[in-house]
Design brief:
With 80 residues, the protein is an all-alpha fold. It has one domain. It contains three helices and no strands. The model has no long low-confidence stretch (mean pLDDT 91).
Length: 80
């Protein structure tokens, strides 16, 4: 039975079930596919409430991208 996730134990159990379902070759509109869709919504809601991730500032986003590209901040000081 599907229900709203209310605590960490239920969250962990939901993640395990999501993983199990994602390993299957699901058919669209099957009971398992519908279960995955609903569980994903519940997991997303729980994560938004308990593990919020704020958007980075524009400068932090640029610095992160530079790091991904292997660039040194000092090489780009003129940009900031």
């Amino acid at each position: 039975m599907l229900k709203v996730i209310k605590n960490e134990a239920e969250y962990e159990a939901a993640l395990e079930r999501v993983y199990e379902l994602m390993q299957m070759d699901l058919v669209e509109d099957s009971p398992e596919s519908d279960e995955l869709d609903v569980l994903a919504l519940f997991v997303e809601d729980y994560e938004n409430k308990h593990y919020p991730v704020s958007a980075p500032t524009p400068v932090k986003a640029i610095l992160f991208r530079l790091e991904q590209l292997g660039k040194d901040k000092s090489e780009t000081d003129y940009m900031i």
